Amino acid sequence: EAKKTGRGEQRMFTEDMNAVARDGLVIDGALRGAIEANEFSLVYQAITNAQTGKLTKVEALLRWNSSLLGPVPPDRFIPVAEDSGMIIELGTWVLDQACRQVGLWKQSALDDVTISINVSSWQLADPGFVTLVSQALIRNGLSPHQLELELTERVLIEDTLNVQTVLAQLRALGVGISLDDFGTGYSSLSYLTQFHLNTLKIDRAFVMDIEHSERSNNLVHAIIAMGHSLGLQLVAEGVETAGQATILEQMGCHYLQGYHIARPIAPDELLRFADSRAAALAQTPAQPDFVI
Ligand code: C2E
Ligand code: MG
Ligand code: MG
Ligand code: MG
């Protein structure tokens, strides 16, 4: 590719790379001390049962409001934190904070919710990780089935043997393992049986076009069929329209996540969402099994 481009384009590419590197350095500097300075918070996005509409799971998403840089999106600072190794400390903070929040939701409309946390490969490779997880559960009074860890396909190819062992230990604890952004990465179907997964999250890129592209529609259909035959739960990510939700439900997708249901929001706001969702479901008359 690079050979084919002219001199000018090549220089621009280099300048771009320099900008990215410079950006990374600035972010790296600003990240230091950011936990102590209380610059991080978690927002929570609802995941509902596609058939009943019940709020069943919640994904915790990290937010950073830097005193130096302002709000920085996770797609920009997570890779930097991974490069410096800071992701270990940051990931531990996320795990603690999210489990504490679920502990606080006891005896509310979010009483039995499952919390999903994004975990990077560095954390899984950390020898103390399984202990860290079980301690966070115990400390906050969570039952293990209330926690689900989201991994990307990259994690699975990076250190196969160790990852398999760690995932087996987590599953033995009772914690769920979910494969995030499914279909975008280094998909090898053998991973789906080789690793101890219980949930597949179908990436937004496929869900986005499901109403208008036959190809995306067929692809999502195939992923769902495959998930069913492997005994996996399916979550569709990035559901933005009622039309997408209907198609996904009809295809047998178990759970829906996306702006059509709710944006990622602060804990208080999520609790209000859960209250109104529960009230709405209680009012809906039970569906008859058949109509005469
Ligand atoms: P992800 O885990 O795939 O999270 C879903 C992303 O899609 C979130 O972006 C969410 O805000 C966004 N999203 C949800 N519904 C919709 C929708 O209907 N339409 C559109 N356009 N977007 C939607 P966010 O919060 O910016 O996070 C980006 C990524 O950063 C996450 O992707 C995850 O890979 C990573 N991340 C976030 N929090 C953490 C964390 O605590 N630890 C680690 N290691 N990674 C994290
Ligand atoms: Mg995720
Ligand atoms: Mg995802
Ligand atoms: Mg993603």
Instruction: State the total count of DSSP E strands.
Output: 9
Assembly level: single chain
Portion in strands = 15-25%
- Provide the gyration radius in Å: 21 Å
Structural class: alpha/beta
Helices and strands, in order, run as HEEEHHEHHEHHEHEHHEHEH
Low-confidence stretches: 1-9
Largest β sheet strand count, sense and barrel closure: 8 strands, mixed, barrel
What ligands are attached or bound here? ligand C2E, magnesium ion
* Spatial order of strands in the largest sheet: 1-2-4-5-6-7-8-9
Can you give the helix content as a percent range? 40-55%
Which outline best applies?
Answer: globular
Provide a count of the helices.
12
Distance between the termini: 65 Å
Give the overall pLDDT as a whole number. 90
Domain EAL: 24-278
Protein name: EAL domain-containing protein
Keywords: Membrane, Transmembrane, Transmembrane helix
Describe the structure concisely.
Helix content is 49%, strand content 18%.
Topology:
Layout: H1 7-31, E1 40-49, E2 55-66, E3 70-72, H2 74-84, H3 87-104, E4 114-118, H4 121-125, H5 129-139, E5 147-151, H6 153-158, H7 160-173, E6 176-182, H8 189-194, E7 199-202, H9 204-207, H10 214-229, E8 233-236, H11 242-251, E9 255-257, H12 267-283
Parallel strand pairs: 2-4, 4-5, 5-6, 6-7, 7-8, 8-9
Antiparallel strand pairs: 1-2, 1-9, 2-3
Helix pairs in contact: 1-2, 3-5, 5-7
The structure holds ligand C2E and magnesium ion (3 copies).
